[in-house]
Design goal:
The complex is a heterodimer.
Chain A lengths: L13 H4 L2 E9 L2 H17 L2 E6 L6 H12 L5 E7 L4 H7 L5 E5 L8 H8 L9 E5 L16 E7 L6 H4 L1 H5 L3 E5 L12 H9 L7 E3 L8 H20 L7
Parallel strand pairs in A: 2-5, 2-6, 3-4, 3-5, 6-7, 7-8
Helix pairs in contact in A: 2-5
Chain B lengths: L2 H18 L4 E9 L7 H12 L8 E6 L3 E4 L5 E3 L15 E5 L3 E9 L17
Parallel strand pairs in B: 1-2
Antiparallel strand pairs in B: 1-6, 3-4, 3-5
Helix pairs in contact in B: 1-2
The chains are: A alpha/beta, B alpha+beta.
Chain lengths: 249, 130
């Protein structure tokens, strides 16, 4: 190996020999989003507000669930909503009609919400008066799963007409869920091909231990389980925040 | 669909690394991407030249290393390969597993040209969740 004929330049070091420099970074690609998400989470913690990211395909019943939640828990939990859609204020108007403070984010063509969009929306909502802030993500079973918004919990909805195998088809989304809701169960008699046990099994095959609840926002069936999950979430968050930690969180 | 947004975040990070090292050009970028990151490597490769145009990384070669899907079984304490939608233990079949590899979305390294300082990668990774 010598400097005369160039035989000291190998495939492994050619770039260095040519004046190039390989710099190891080992950084999370979504670091900027995750930093903003952490900032959002600290903000939620500061107000003792449980933040819940609702994700599903379009039309799985996210807005209907929020309407039913406002009606059911209006006297017990103070809720606020950030609505994400490509276009229109339609969902925000439905939520507003329930007397719930709401901010609509129109993403234009973007297929997901990111932590910066949520942060901007937070400037328009008073967290002091709230117990739970819902972020209704853009209806999409793919992209929203990759972006941390600063939420405390991810909830994935799977509606009866969609079919029981969605968790096997969209594993990234359903693996990230802290709670899975099988919605529109009032349609179960008309759609016996949806096997709830199979849906549960597909979620478990993703190594996900999350609770799975069946409900119908229309008939009210199963909503009490959802309500108690929310109330427990708020209580757990406030209990955790009351305990001083090394980070002072 | 969100790969362009991810490429733009990537270019922002690459610009920071280049500027920290006073490099004028970046000729290569290497990523580790697991199938459970929700990002499709082929779409990243398509989006990269669009996001890189006009940046220090214009014309850079993007290399994506695919991370394998591996799970750790809590009941039989073995590590095994798994499928993206079947993260169960290959040895005993239990589904109570922990993902050991497969959800990576990481900028591993960049090749800088005309850098004038010692390599400096920037902030270490940090994540916190309550």
């Amino acid at each position: 190996m010598c400097d005369t004929c160039g035989c000291n330049v190998t495939l492994a070091n050619r770039e260095l020999a040519e004046g190039k420099q390989a710099t190891q970074v080992l950084g999370n690609l979504l670091q900027v989003n995750d930093d903003q998400a952490l900032h959002n989470r600290v903000h939620f913690n500061g107000h003792g507000v449980l933040s819940v990211n609702l994700m599903s395909s379009p039309g799985a019943g996210k807005t209907a669930l929020l309407e039913a939640t406002a009606e059911l828990l209006g006297n017990e939990l103070r809720i606020g909503v950030i609505e994400g859609d490509l276009e229109t204020e339609n969902d925000a108007e439905r939520i507003r009609a329930c007397g719930v403070p709401v901010v609509q984010i129109c993403t234009g063509t973007a297929c997901h919400l990111d932590a910066h969009m949520v942060h901007d929306a937070l400037h328009q909502i008073d967290l002091d008066g709230l117990d739970v802030l819902f972020v209704e993500n853009v209806g999409n079973l793919v992209c929203p799963a990759s972006f941390d918004l600063g939420q405390h919990r991810n909830v994935a909805l799977l509606s009866t007409p969609e079919g029981d195998d969605k968790p096997a088809k969209y594993p990234v989304m359903f693996r990230s869920a802290d709670l899975v809701l099988l919605t529109k169960r009032d349609l179960a008699p008309y759609m016996p091909e949806f096997d709830a046990a199979k849906a549960v099994s597909y979620v478990r095959q993703l190594g996900n231990v999350a609770p799975i609840l069946e409900l119908s926002a229309k008939s009210g069936e199963g909503l009490e389980g959802w309500a108690s999950w929310l109330k427990r979430g708020v209580a757990d968050l406030r209990e955790n925040l009351a305990v001083p930690t090394a980070e002072g969180a | 669909m969100h790969e362009l947004a991810i490429c733009q975040a990537l270019i922002d990070q690459v610009e920071t690394v280049a500027s920290n090292n006073r490099a004028t050009r970046v000729s290569g970028v290497t990523l580790d991407v697991g199938p459970l990151s929700g990002v499709v490597p082929e779409l990243l490769l398509n989006a990269f030249p669009v996001a890189a145009a006009g940046s220090v990384a214009e014309g850079a070669i993007l290399t994506i290393e695919a991370a394998p899907v591996r799970v750790w079984c809590k009941s039989c304490e073995t590590e095994s390969d798994a499928k993206i939608n079947r993260l169960v233990c290959a040895s005993c079949g239990d589904w109570r597993t922990e993902l050991r590899s497969g959800d990576e979305l990481m900028l591993r390294s960049v090749v800088l040209e005309d850098a004038t300082s010692t390599p400096h990668a920037g902030q270490p990774e940090e994540k916190q969740r309550v």
